[in-house]
Amino acid sequence: MSTAPTGPAGAPLDGAAGPAGSSAGIVGPGELLALFRARSPLTRTEVMALTGLSRSTVNQRIDLLQDAGLLVERDLGVVPGRGRGRPAGAFAFNVERGVLLVCDIGATALRAAVCDLSGRVLLDAPALSDVTEGPEAVLSRVDPLFADLLARTGRESGDVRGIALSVPGPVDHEQATVVSPPIMTGWDRFDIRAWFARTYDCPLLLEKDATAMAWGEYRTHYQHADTLLMIKLGTGVGAGIIAGGRIHRGADGAAGDIGHTQALGDDGLDPLCRCGNTGCVEARAGGWAMLRDLVAAGRDLSTVDEVVERIRTADPVAVGLARTAGRVLGVALAETVNILNPRVVVVGGQLAEAEEQIFAGLREMVYSRSLPLATRRLELHRSRLDVRAGSVGLALLLADHVFAPASVDAALASAT
């Protein structure tokens, strides 16, 4: 076994000890729980070896976490590599102690899910929703979805340990509010925490949709990549950034807004964007922009999903627009690759379903316009989590937040 325990995301635990006998030791039960979340199941002897804590201290902290319902005992039986003799008894993080609720809110649809305490999605449900209708209208659709998911999994509101939402707009992560969103009418500074506090007594997180997707892809498939860039191509265009194995939000949470960088076209036109500026990447390559251009070309369409279907069925106008969009996005992505030098770029969202047409332009522009060193080991993939990327990312973020060592220590102290 490794001698440096890691947290759920693979990062070293603060205060983690080296080999057995180390004097550093894990400080409190919260950090011990983080070890179990990352490596369950573990025996008492293994915990001692990993942390350098004495047997009496390990026993005391395991008993404390077990009494709180956060650890459960597991009978490992005779396990190869764990010694001979009596079957080993071990402990594991109790993922069934409660549930987490998450909702990935997009411009025209949302997906709610109930998850166990490890962040694993147990059950989810999609629904149509127009984010421009305002927070009360959208969140009023989320409420019954959450209630239904809880009922279908045999849970109640009191079992909910945390809630997380993602939205297609700029987010103040600390305050859990949307800040001056271009398309989210009425959401600016709306008190989302107060809305859900009427029903649930638990923490609430708010995240930008592309950031949640980035975290989901990184944690489930790309932890080998120190730096990952997630591009969401849906009604709009957004990006989420993982740098150094951590989410990069920027100084004020505005990092990754690639859709509102400038894209100068060969046609000399600067189309008006929904943000009020002209010539944005999104105004040329977003799903809403392609819908606009197809309607102008005489196609009877009303949704981005219909745009994707036209592309996939080889409508010549739709295919041409998709290829142009791919090149526009590719130019913007090439500039971002030069700046960030990511190891992996993941592309998701509705338009990613038109992979053949969109990805051709993306690859062409990225590899022709980026520096050779920046693309030498670059991986470019379609999202592997697909429509559940945001839900998975939210659940993993929320689990880490709810069971942060300091939060666990505070909860245990208040309960004694």
From TrEMBL:
It comes from the Bacteria. This is ROK family protein. Residues 1-20 are annotated as: Disordered. InterPro entries: ATPase_NBD, ROK, ROK_cs, WH-like_DNA-bd_sf, WH_DNA-bd_sf. Pfam families: HTH_24, ROK. Belongs to the ROK (NagC/XylR) family. Gene3D superfamilies: 3.30.420.40, Winged helix-like DNA-binding domain superfamily/Winged helix DNA-binding domain.
